Amino acid sequence: MLAVPDSRIKNILIQNSLAKESDLEDLAMMAKSSNISFYDAVLDKNIASDEIIGQMIAQSLGFPFVILSRTAIPEELFLVTPEKVARKLKSIAFGKDANGLKIAMNDPTDKLTIEMLSKKTGLNIIPYFATEKDILNALRLLRKDLQTACENLINEEIDINNTAILDEAPVSKIVDLIVDYAYQDKASDIHIEPEEKNLLIRFRIDGLLHDALRLPKNLHVRIVSRIKVLSKLRTDEHLSAQDGKMRLTTPYEVLDIRVSIIPVADGEKVVLRLLSSKKKQFSLSNLGVDDSELKKINKALGKSYGMILSTGPTGSGKTTIIYTLLKQINIRERNITTIEDPVEYRIAGANQIQVNIKTNLTFANGLRSILRQDPNVIFVGEIRDNETAGIAVNAALTGHLVFSTLHTNDASASIPRLIDMKVEPFLVASTVNLIIAQRLVRKICDMCRMPVTLTMNDLAQRIPVEIILNTFPDQKSFIVFQGQGCKICHNTGYEGRIGIFEILEISSEIRKLITTRCDADIINRQAVKEGMKTMLADGLNKVARGITTIEEVLRVTKVETI
């Protein structure tokens, strides 16, 4: 536990003029409803960096402050607090001199831990304050890379002189090790890809794939078989695709993993999707929704009927934001029923249905059945066809609050998309309350971010001038940030992702445009005129706040350079 209670952190922020008391009270309520700590909510809100808040807390406690990620820690000191112990105690030895052993602690007032370490080492313990995030980052830096860890594991388990060395390799431990490293690296997926001579393991981190490990090809069949056993798939089937699910107990949580196996030229390729419940404790704020847009969303959530749509390409976080909205309105007095393909995360108290084509449980058929279950709120995983679109719109018209997702490039394009699905324009105008379009951009790594000064001319070469002036009025030059690349961010300059949004509220004027079958461009212009912030504008605001880079925003919004 952090030594400083939430009330003290609030006082520290107020005393240093970083936030108002009323804003922090609202933030505390949001953190509680989202099941995240107040400290994490402060970081997500970008009130101050982890380092700045850490310095203030250390000063408040009366202990020296250390930034471990920028400190060279001797390897022998890492043995004083091995990784599992360090994670549990949130403490790590980082220095030693004539005065004693320096220990970075998230709670330097913890006398029991200090006495235990003193007894173990026979040295005087000098406690320093370090943030939990910094301690965890330091542990990631100090651990062996996956390739070395895997080779060490194999060598420890078997006799090196054994000619059948690969047949004795501890495959179950190798699979556990791969999943453990992927989880710590915050990977969303693990790709296990057979090549002609090797087995390649890749992690998808922040939307991009990174090579993580190469193993001898001989291990491929045994690793795939191990995964098949864990996910209850056929081990004797090698020529057809199989999908399943498995659950692994890690030091951090019981992790659900979605498994997909397909035959490729050199064997079977496996993709593991890590479904972490701890990492899905989101609020709208830490997803990246600005306060001005929150009012539109809360207004739509306050209605008892109508439709809220989330749009964007695959992997843009559509389902995540819908889950976050459902959790926000999930109370015992409401019957929330969903039909999804697949059901990725459990929502406590909601009735979640898995689409099953074999039993003819499609989105359309499932939705018909849901309407006979007396629901208040319905989530249709995706509107894929005319039949599902028609039933969903009619459900929204007859007193149900309906959530769903569509694949469109921006918010206004969702209107003609529904009309193309044979939904009458007057029904679209009557039922759709809000459309949320989004993309995910990578966040600048906190550990290696550096300021960069840009001029208006630099921006004008890549972004239309009128958009620049809306975001950066009356400025000839301004400071933005970029990551230099470090071990924490795998030398990419980025760590983590955040959403950029375009939230279209269906006003009376826009309803008129819908009923007259106006195209998406006209609807979009009217929405901007009424105050809608485009995804590009929202992205540039996040650039100005030092959250992401111009390159990231342009990459995901696909704005053509001038």
UniProtKB/TrEMBL annotation:
GO MF assignments: ATP binding; ATP hydrolysis activity
Domain Bacterial type II secretion system protein E, residue spans: 167-555
Domain Type II secretion system protein GspE N-terminal: 61-143
GO cellular component terms listed in the entry, alphabetical order: plasma membrane
InterPro entries, A to Z: P-loop_NTPase (IPR027417), T2SS/T4SS_dom (IPR001482), T2SS_E_N_sf (IPR037257), T2SS_GspE_N (IPR007831)
Keywords for this protein: ATP-binding, Nucleotide-binding
Gene3D superfamilies, per database record: 3.30.450.90, P-loop containing nucleotide triphosphate hydrolases, Type II secretion system, protein E, N-terminal domain
A Pfam entry, by short name: T2SSE
CDD domains for this protein: PulE-GspE-like
Keyword hit for Nucleotide-binding: yes
Family indicated by similarity: Belongs to the GSP E family.
Protein name, UniProt field: General secretory pathway protein E, type IV pilus assembly protein PilB
Organism: Candidatus Gottesmanbacteria bacterium GW2011_GWA2_43_14
Biological classification of the source: Bacteria, Candidatus Gottesmaniibacteriota
